[in-house]
Design brief:
Layout lengths: L21 E6 L6 H13 L9 H11 L6 E7 L2 E9 L12 E3 L11 E2 L4 H19 L3 E8 L3 H13 L3 E12 L5 H8 L2 H15 L4 E6 L5 H14 L1 H4 L8 H16 L3 E8 L2 E11 L2 E9 L8 H9 L11 E2 L9 H4 L2 E11 L3 H17 L7
Parallel strand pairs: 4-6
Antiparallel strand pairs: 1-2, 2-3, 3-4, 3-5, 6-13, 7-12, 7-13, 8-9, 9-10, 10-11
Helix pairs in contact: 2-9, 3-4, 7-9
């Protein structure tokens, strides 16, 4: 499926692209002022590829949690005094198992997309400015190449990167590609479910729903604002930690940093109307919960949890059945599952796929670019899906 057909946001007021772009790299705390946040939010509203994980309410919460000393940096590109693009920047000293210093988009395990926020129509301007800056700074940064993880493929933002690399005669290569579940269909929720699942599976879900309803008063609660948000967050964190994620120490409440991120991100998203929450409850006790981030025309399924005491009734799947109501919302065209490839539950319910990949790009002068091409050939020759897999 070609995501270029439905990722573009509403067309913003065009910039004077003849003006020379200005690239800046600043400590992230310089972007916390109300004025900067307003510029940043406007950029997110006009971005050709929505990415909630790089919007100010999520990225600043992430940096507060994982970079309290404030050493992280944000790269920005301005055109005619207007913000045209922004991404968090890091300088890793290793690439997988290898001691290969490079420049990269900064991501953490709870940020599921690495697409820079780029104003629609400014994709080539942004990449040219970024690559020009990287060329000039490669020596100072001691970086052998530029690496862009979790990039959405087959759409204008990523296509513009490869076009810029081609026109500049620099090597840019996809070093890993995977697909994850996506919800994108003109069908109603009822027809979508009928197409996605066999009659036998739909009958089993109806049976599980009926049996679950025998356990008490069964309800689906949906919030699209900040109503009872604090209580909802507490219930979600407790529910997730009681399950297998708590046992594996990967629940959000297992570390103060991830718990703070979850709380602050949901509060920030709710304040902007970016959050939708669903709960499946028995006698008002939540047994399955999920949170979606809304970034029209897209959305992202951020976190989900269920009570494993009720596992035989598939409460998580029953709640995802209710989540198909996203298909009825006129402002939402698609939802990214943010799930791992081949996820046993969501892959069977959401039938579309979104291609995500890691891209490495040559930077600097001839010697550095030549060394990069040698490293790239080694990486792809030994392992076609990349050294970091």
């Amino acid at each position: 499926m070609n995501l270029a057909t439905f990722t573009t946001a509403a067309t913003p007021t065009p910039l004077v692209l003849a003006d020379e772009p200005v690239t800046s790299v600043r400590p992230w705390r310089e972007w916390t002022s109300p004025e900067r946040r307003m510029q940043w939010h406007a950029l997110a509203e006009s971005a050709s590829t929505p990415n909630p994980f790089f919007e100010p309410w999520y990225l600043l919460a992430s940096l507060e949690a994982f970079d309290p000393t404030g050493t992280g940096r944000l790269l920005s590109v301005e055109v005619a005094g207007e913000l045209a693009g922004l991404m968090p920047l890091s300088s890793p000293r290793r690439y997988g198992r290898w001691p290969l210093p490079h420049l990269a988009t900064w991501l953490h395990p709870n940020a599921f997309l690495g697409a820079p926020l780029v104003r629609a129509g400014c994709e080539r301007v942004f990449w040219r400015a970024l690559l020009q800056w990287a060329d000039a700074q490669a020596g100072r940064e001691q970086a052998l190449f530029l690496h862009l993880p979790a990039m959405p493929l087959e759409q204008p933002l990523t296509e513009a990167l490869f076009d810029c690399a081609d026109e500049q005669g620099r090597k840019a290569s996809l070093v890993m590609r995977e697909q994850r579940a996506l919800l994108h269909s003109p069908l109603t929720p009822e027809l979508y479910l009928e197409r996605a699942l066999t009659a036998k599976k739909r009958k089993e879900l109806r049976r599980q729903h009926s049996r679950l309803a025998e356990q008490g008063q069964l309800e689906v609660v949906r919030y699209r604002d900040a109503t009872a948000l604090d209580a909802w967050i507490e219930a979600f964190l407790a529910l997730e930690k009681r399950g297998w994620k708590g046992t594996s120490n990967s629940a959000m409440a297992c570390a103060p940093e991830t718990e703070a991120l979850f709380r602050n991100a949901l509060e920030g998203a709710a304040a902007l109307g970016r959050l939708e929450r669903l709960s499946l409850t028995i006698d008002r006790r939540p047994i399955a919960m999920l949170a979606n981030f809304l970034t029209p025309p897209g959305s992202f399924s951020y976190k989900t949890a269920f009570d494993e005491d009720f596992a035989r009734y598939s409460p998580g799947v029953l709640l995802q059945r209710e989540n198909l109501a996203l298909l009825s919302r006129p402002e939402i065209t698609w939802c990214d599952s943010c799930a791992a490839p081949d996820h046993p539950m969501i892959d069977s319910l959401w039938t579309e796929r979104r291609a995500i990949g890691r891209i490495s790009v040559a930077i600097g002068g001839k010697l550095r670019r030549s060394l990069f091409e040698t490293l790239l050939a080694l990486e792809l020759g030994r392992n076609p899906v990349g050294l970091t897999r």
